């Protein structure tokens, strides 16, 4: 990355502070800028308040779950928001089918416990 390139920004929607701080550290080491949403109520507000390049979405966040938030993102009027890659993170993927993820507009998903190599690979793949 050239020194003048702006770092890509990732919104992490996650209510577990442990996972949040680990994920944040890993991505910051990869030179991503991190924006946080502690619950589904904050996701759209954060996306509207600043440019973001991708979303890491915990499926089980409070207020509005990750599936609802992803639908909100896909239904958003602003193409800068509704086209964002949304990578779901879930500890219980078995509760959801890939079909439900796809129908909601999830770009890809990572199971918990997170494999941090896979995290970096998937973020690079969709966000650059």
Automatic annotation (TrEMBL):
InterPro entries on file: CheY-like_superfamily (IPR011006), Sig_transdc_resp-reg_receiver (IPR001789)
Residue ranges of every copy of the Response regulatory domain listed in the record: 9-127
CDD domains: REC_hyHK_CKI1_RcsC-like
Positions bearing 4-aspartylphosphate: 58
Keywords carried by this UniProt record: Phosphoprotein, Two-component regulatory system
Pfam families per the UniProt record, alphabetical: Response_reg
PANTHER family the record matches: HYBRID SIGNAL TRANSDUCTION HISTIDINE KINASE J
Protein name as catalogued: Response regulatory domain-containing protein
Native source organism of the sequence: Hymenobacter ginsengisoli
């Amino acid at each position: 990355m050239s020194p003048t390139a702006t770092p890509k920004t990732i919104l992490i929607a996650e209510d577990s502070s442990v996972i949040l701080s680990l994920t944040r550290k890993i991505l910051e080491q990869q030179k991503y800028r991190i924006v946080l949403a502690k619950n589904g109520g904050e996701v759209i507000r954060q996306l509207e308040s600043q440019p973001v390049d991708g979303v890491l979405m915990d499926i089980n966040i409070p207020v509005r779950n990750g599936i609802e938030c992803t639908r909100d993102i896909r239904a958003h009027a602003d193409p800068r928001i509704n086209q964002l890659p949304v990578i779901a993170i879930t500890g219980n993927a078995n509760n959801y089918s890939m079909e439900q993820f796809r129908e909601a507009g999830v770009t890809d998903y990572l199971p918990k416990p997170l494999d941090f190599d896979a995290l970096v690979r998937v973020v690079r793949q969709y966000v650059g």
